[in-house]
């Protein structure tokens, strides 16, 4: 398997030659504008994709399916809706399948639990996008586990560390876990995705797994950058199994 971070939460996962694009935010730098309830005037996304339009279009032609964890614009933007082939399989929770269909997509694989697609078992997982009132306003989010034979990759999605994440790890025993870091926070409330402390908890709870950190330096409400999180990883002596992906970086997932 191979994994490439495009930007933020947008990932390309290649499983035995099958390419799955996860959470496509494909617009140009600044195309989402200013986020509400943040302490800055920055326009999102903060950075461009690590390749130009021509290469993007070529990459999209080679995508076999798209997996969407939730419909917040930094995971599913209007540019993605415009550029993606309307006949491409869209893998998502049944809770958002009707809304995706309204955008004109015709091949929607709506999950309540698990589905076998080609040679891949795909399972939807729970997430918690913050706590209290902010968490409720962020709505329901999910992640995915992708399994083939004895290989398992868990994409946790936009979630803080909480009991359900531990339960998903126990249930699926993934060898690779992909988390959203950055401690994104609004003007009120606690972080809505993982802090560096949360990432350390994931590593401690899954001592045999390799952990990959995404969602960094791309949106304006994130408070922790790559340098800060790397320092925390080093302090906890986890640098041999917890890695921060750079935009455009492609890695081989070893099992």
TrEMBL record:
SUPFAM superfamilies associated with the record: Metallo-hydrolase/oxidoreductase
Keyword Hydrolase: yes
Claim: Ribosomal protein is one of the keywords in the record: no
Annotated ranges, domain Metallo-beta-lactamase: 21-215
Transmembrane segments: none
GO molecular function: hydrolase activity
Recorded superkingdom: Bacteria
Keywords, alphabetical: Hydrolase
Gene3D superfamilies for the chain: Ribonuclease Z/Hydroxyacylglutathione hydrolase-like
UniProt xrefs under Pfam families: Lactamase_B_2
PANTHER family assigned: L-ASCORBATE-6-PHOSPHATE LACTONASE ULAG-RELATED (PTHR43546:SF9), UPF0173 METAL-DEPENDENT HYDROLASE MJ1163-RELATED (PTHR43546)
Protein name, entry field: MBL fold metallo-hydrolase
Lineage, opening ranks: Bacteria, Pseudomonadati, Bacteroidota, Flavobacteriia, Flavobacteriales
């Amino acid at each position: 398997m191979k994994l490439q971070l495009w930007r933020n939460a947008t990932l390309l996962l290649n499983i035995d030659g099958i390419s799955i694009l996860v959470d496509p935010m494909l617009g140009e730098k600044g195309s989402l504008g200013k986020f509400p309830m943040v302490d800055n005037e920055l326009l999102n996304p903060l950075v461009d994709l690590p390749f130009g339009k021509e290469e993007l279009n070529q990459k999209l032609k080679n995508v076999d399916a798209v997996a969407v964890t939730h419909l917040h614009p930094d995971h599913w933007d209007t540019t993605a809706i415009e550029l993606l082939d309307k006949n491409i399989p869209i893998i998502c929770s049944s809770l958002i399948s009707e809304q995706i269909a309204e955008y004109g997509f015709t091949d929607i694989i709506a999950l309540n639990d698990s589905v076998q697609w080609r040679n891949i078992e795909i399972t939807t997982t729970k997430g918690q996008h913050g706590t209290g009132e902010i968490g409720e306003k962020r709505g329901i989010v999910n992640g995915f586990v992708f399994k083939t034979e004895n290989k398992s990759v868990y994409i946790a999605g936009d979630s803080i560390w909480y009991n359900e994440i531990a339960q998903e790890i126990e249930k699926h025993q993934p060898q690779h876990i992909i988390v959203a870091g950055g401690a994104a926070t609004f003007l009120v409330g606690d972080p809505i995705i993982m802090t560096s402390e949360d990432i350390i908890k994931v590593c401690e709870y899954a001592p045999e797994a390799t952990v990959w950190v995404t969602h960094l330096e791309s949106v304006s409400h994130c408070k922790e950058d790559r340098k800060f999180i790397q320092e925390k990883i080093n302090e906890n002596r986890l640098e041999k199994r917890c890695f921060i992906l750079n935009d455009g970086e492609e890695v081989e997932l070893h099992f």
